[in-house]
Amino acid sequence: MQFRILGTMEITDQSRSIQLRGMTQRAVLGYLLLHANETVATSQLLRALWGDKPPITARKMLQNAVAGLRRRLDARDARQVSLLTHAPGYLLRVDPERVDWFRFRGGAEQGRAELAVGAWGAAATLLREALGLWRGPLLADLAEVGVDWPELATAEGMRLAVLEDCAEAELAIGRHHEVIDELAAAAEAAPRRERLCGLLMMALYRCGRQADALESYRRTRTVLVDELGLDPGHELRELERSILNHDPSLALLAAGGTAVSLRSAPADLTGPAEAAADGADARQGAAAQGADEPPPQGDARAAGSERGACGATVERKWVSVLLVRAQEGEGGEAQDPEDAAEGMRWVTAAVREEVDRYGGVLHGRMGSVWLALFGVERNREDDAQRAVRAALAIRDRVAARQPADALPEPAPRAAVATGEVLVTPSREPGHDAGTPEVAGGVLDVGMRLLMLAAPREVRVCDATRQMSEAAFVHGASAQPMGGWRVTAIRECRVADQPTPPFVERERELEILRALLRDVLRRRRPQLAAVVGEAGVGKSRLVAELALTVGDVADGFRFVLGRTASFPTNTPFGPLADVVRSLLGVRHTDSPTVVEERLLHTVRRLVGPGEAAARLLPHLRPLAGLTPGPRPRGGTPEAFAAWRRFLEEAATERPLVMVFEDLDRAETPMIEFVQELIANARPVPVLIVATARPVQSQPRPCRHAGFRDSTTLLLDPLSDAGAAFLLSSLLPPLGPGEQPLDARHPLVASIGGNPLFAVEYARALRDGPADREIPTPPAVRSIIAARLDTLPRGAKAVLQDAAIFGASVDAVALAAVGGRSWIEVRRHLESLERGEFLRRNGRVSVTGDPEYDFQQVVVREVAYAQMPREVRSAKHSRAARWLEMREAERAVPRAHRPRAAPLAAPAG
Ligand SMILES: Nc1ncnc2c1ncn2[C@@H]1O[C@H](COP(=O)(O)OP(=O)(O)O)[C@@H](O)[C@H]1O
Ligand SMILES: [Mg+2]
Hints:
8-stranded mixed β-sheet; Serine Threonine Protein Phosphatase 5, Tetratricopeptide repeat; Rossmann fold; Alpha-Beta Plaits
């Protein structure tokens, strides 16, 4: 349903016109539409309709009109529009996009935001579009029968102000010929508006009509002097003087007094000219990268102002750089160039393969040094870990081709550094669109570490170490600023002595223990899914369970498998971890040891005969024994063999089997877990799956509601819990020091996430005491990874919201980001679903809900990703926009002319 009131009132439903009965109905609806999504008091409506002397039957007539309207409107689609009784009167709830009056205001706001930053072309397009919605005076049919609400006059004032802004923008881009007629007509109708007069003078002067320009000045001056006894203001007088003197500045001076160059836009990052020129490319780029959004409407808005040539955005990002120095063959100056080239090709292929596998991009090579980047296209929370894994893999591959006593020179070495860079999508034509430019000091840090690295060593910077500590063991380097050596990959085990003290999850732990008792009592498998965001404490809960299984019953065996976040050569990695733990083998054990343990265990469980012979071939690949690629999909025989092995193990001793991060496991692994639960023999086994709440339905949760399965959702800790956790992580307090309070600003940054508490505490301990704490790397990488799961448009809207901080609404964001209101609202809804923003319960003037950030750090990270220049341009747009909104509100209702009574109230 569409409501048009900028002219005669028209209501259409799917392009069929809806007729209203009589003037009262029209007037009631007209008034409610002007105040859509606000409560209008009955007394206010009565006064609008009948002035100070309403007839005795006025209330009744109003009620009848409302009832009639409801029949015509609500009946069609109550979701689109509904007329509610809302003390002390009525509330017309309607999507502002369906009312031309609000569309006009939204468009005007956007256009003015462009004007405020000197984006004349975009401003002119938007303002023209808004003005185009007017078909005549506001509610012309009501005005004709004598309705004279102050709102009508205010609206006309607003229309003229938008016309003036539009003319200003059009004059600035040399459209003086086009605007003259419209300005002349408007100035004739509103001769007291000095700005209008000034714009007309300017247009006439630029068309070579100096005499006409001076004539229009005299007309306005006469009206002002005659009617108000005032002279025109300073600006208009100055303009007259300049015209008389043929002042050359007139060619460059827009009527509002703003100096503009006739070059249509600044050619910097924030310039709309570039955006317009790049519009087509931007759309192509978006399509090529599979962005899931329709191209923005309208050329002026075709590209967000901060976009580069390939449609991606210039962004500050934290990335991990991997530098590898390697040579194949003897290397050195004596090597034959053809051999060197051959060796180089081999190393390049190996580097590319490993970098690809761990999700990085190979950026280039300089001599025998290769550079790869992790996190440029999209941040993942484990970019640093991936880079180190790639480094280790490349080192091992290259080293494996060299004799053990190879000279230091050809021996491979690598360095990983993590830090902030500016990522600029490549602009050069013909340049591979996938290789953006990257600049930042972290590249130098990487080079320094690479130079310090000993043969076969992988060196990392401190940020990389902090972000990958869970996966690797590090040794400090002896050199100053020498970073850390990666000495080993951590074994997959639950922590024996987890720190910090366990907070607030007693209930969840008790539920898991109750399930254990159940498993023992009923001797049947149970599945528990532990679901929560990264860092909320899923693994810790599992570790606490491991520590206390002994309290429930003796003899439980506890095994755990992790899901890698990068592709591995088998989907059954977590199961392989579990099997290896049951065999009691480590990564470092030789194949002979593993084979021996496998034979021994299987024979112990099923006996030496045929049963063992059937199981062994299926277990060998999981134990890491079969050379070559391990099984991709599981055959029914393999599934049956694995299940049998686990059942026998559980029969021997009750079993707790944990699969960590199962949400990112590949389908065959998930299918195996489902199959296990569905078909396992009655044996005592508790399967715990941890997972993040991905999309709407996390995969391990699909079991929810099935027999023998339980889902535990881990919510954030309470503020008091977070404060306690933080205090316990900090050095003991000195005498007289206050313990941390739940209202401490850091508690808000932590947002109930224990991992964030651990990281902030580390930053507090290690950082200088008197400075503000920057977002710790591990926290930032989690948030950055979440932001990079968003479609590009939604992420841009979130960044715009970060400019405002708190309490943003769609209109404000549309104005600052140069996007359509509808598009912004769609993104806001998805950002709320993704738990980035939440509604704060207030509603803006346009009836749009206002939003706040759910977590302070999300705002910090989103803000920090915008380049300085973009940030400051957006800040000034936001400031101008807020100013304009205030100015519009500044005319208090009481000072507007009073309503005249409706001349002929008709039923
Ligand atoms: N309830 C808790 N009390 C104290 N520390 C916790 C708690 N939950 C988690 N932690 C700590 O927070 C960090 C992250 O927890 P972790 O269990 O690894 O999160 P997840 O597995 O959900 O990503 C770990 O250092 C862990 O010890
Ligand atoms: Mg975990």
